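Example 9 (inverse folding). The structure is encoded as follows.
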C-alpha cells in the first residue's frame, strides 16, 4: 500500500530513502532540511502517514517531540541523542503513536549485535582479556562514537564483570587522521590503542567495471563479456526478469564504468600524490560514472557494437536471490569531484563499442 512520507533530514541518507521510497510507489509529502526547519509543523506533518527521521544529535530530540505532538508514527535512525530517549518515548506513549528507533538498520549489523551478546557472555569469565571497540569513519560523521559502537559497548557492559561504563578516547595520532580527512574514534574500557596510518592513502570502491583482460574472471566477468559470448554462440542474450512492479524486465540499473576510466582515476591519484603529497586528501572514494544505466541498455549496446539487431530473452530470477537482488546501484561521485577529478568518462555506448571492436572481437589483450 503506497505511503505518504515526511522525510526529516535530507542529506545523503534522506535522499537515498526518498529514491527507494519512490521506486516502490510511495510519495514524499514533506522534506525537512537545515534551511527549512520551520516547516516541521503539525499541519504539514498531518499530510503524512509516517515520518522518517535521519538528522543528528543537535536536532533529533526536538524533531521527534514535534512528531509525537502531531501524533504521527516515526522511524528514527539518528544517533547521539539517547540521553533524551526516555522523554521521547514517553511523549509517543502518551499520544499512542508508533515509534521505532535503531542505531543501525542494517540486517547484517543487527545479526552482529546478537553475535556480540553471545561473545560477551562467553568472554565474561576470561578476566585476562581486555575489551575495546575501534572504529574509523568518513569525515562527514556527525557524532562520535557512532550509535552502532554504543549499542555494541552497552551490550558488553551488561554482561561484563570488569566494565560498568564506556569511555570515549581519542587515538594518539588523531590530529594526523583529521588532517588526512579521516576520523578514528575508540570506545574503550581502558587505555587507547595507537593505530598508524600511511602518510597518504586512497581506498577505491569500484562499481560495475567492464573492459579488456577479464578472461580469467570466469563467471565473475562483466555482463558485456558474457553477452558477447552468448551472442556468438546462440544469437541472443538472456537477462533476468524483474520481480518488482516498478522495474520492467531488464531495466534493473547499475553504474557501469569502463576499465580505461578506472585506470585514469588510479593514475590521477598517483599523480596527485607525487605532485603535492602534503595536500593529498586521503579517504575512501567511489569509482563509477555517477550515472546508472539498465542491463537492457548495456546488452543493446553490445549488439550494436557487433552490427546486429538486439535479441533479448528474459528468464526468471532464481528464487534464492530474489529478496536480496539489487535493482539499483549508482556511485556518488561528488567526493572525487571535490578532490579535483573532472575528466570526461566513456559513455556506456562508446565504452562498449571500444571494448567489442578493439579487444573482444579481436581476442586481444589490453
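The amino acid assigned to each position is listed next.
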Amino acid at each position: 500500500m503506497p505511503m505518504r512520507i515526511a522525510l526529516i533530514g535530507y542529506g545523503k541518507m534522506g535522499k537515498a530513502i526518498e529514491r527507494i521510497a519512490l521506486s516502490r510507489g510511495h510519495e514524499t509529502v514533506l522534506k525537512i532540511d537545515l534551511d527549512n526547519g520551520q516547516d516541521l509543523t503539525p499541519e504539514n506533518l498531518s499530510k503524512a502517514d509516517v515520518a522518517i527521521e535521519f538528522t543528528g544529535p543537535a536536532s533529533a530530540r526536538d524533531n521527534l517531540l514535534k512528531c509525537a505532538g502531531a501524533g504521527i508514527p516515526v522511524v528514527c535512525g539518528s544517533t547521539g541523542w539517547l540521553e533524551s530517549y526516555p522523554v521521547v518515548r514517553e511523549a509517543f506513549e502518551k499520544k499512542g503513536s508508533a515509534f521505532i528507533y535503531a542505531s543501525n538498520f542494517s540486517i547484517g549489523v543487527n545479526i552482529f549485535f546478537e553475535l556480540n551478546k553471545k561473545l560477551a557472555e562467553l568472554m565474561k569469565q576470561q578476566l585476562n582479556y581486555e575489551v575495546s571497540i575501534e572504529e574509523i569513519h568518513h569525515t562527514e560523521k556527525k557524532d562520535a562514537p557512532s550509535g552502532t559502537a554504543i549499542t555494541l559497548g552497552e551490550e558488553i557492559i551488561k554482561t561484563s564483570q570488569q566494565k560498568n561504563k564506556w569511555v570515549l578516547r581519542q587515538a594518539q595520532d588523531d590530529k594526523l587522521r583529521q588532517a588526512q580527512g579521516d576520523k578514528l574514534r575508540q570506545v574503550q574500557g581502558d587505555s587507547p590503542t595507537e593505530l598508524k596510518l600511511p602518510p597518504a592513502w586512497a581506498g577505491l570502491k569500484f562499481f560495475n567495471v567492464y573492459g579488456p583482460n577479464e578472461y580469467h574472471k570466469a563467471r565473475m566477468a562483466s555482463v558485456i563479456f558474457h553477452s558477447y559470448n552468448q551472442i556468438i554462440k546462440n544469437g541472443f542474450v538472456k537477462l533476468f526478469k524483474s520481480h518488482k512492479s516498478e522495474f520492467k524486465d531488464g531495466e534493473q540499473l547499475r553504474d557501469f564504468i569502463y576499465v580505461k576510466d578506472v585506470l585514469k582515476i588510479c593514475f590521477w591519484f598517483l599523480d596527485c600524490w607525487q605532485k603535492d603529497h602534503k595536500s593529498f586528501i586521503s579517504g575512501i572514494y567511489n569509482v563509477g560514472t555517477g550515472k546508472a544505466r539498465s542491463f537492457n541498455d548495456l546488452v543493446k549496446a553490445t549488439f550494436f557494437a557487433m552490427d546486429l539487431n538486439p535479441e533479448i530473452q528474459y528468464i526468471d530470477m532464481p528464487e534464492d536471490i530474489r529478496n536480496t537482488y539489487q535493482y539499483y546501484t549508482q556511485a556518488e561521485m561528488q567526493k572525487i569531484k571535490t578532490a579535483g577529478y573532472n575528466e570526461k568518462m566513456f559513455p556506456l555506448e562508446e565504452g562498449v563499442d571500444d571494448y567489442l571492436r578493439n579487444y573482444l572481437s579481436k581476442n586481444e589483450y589490453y
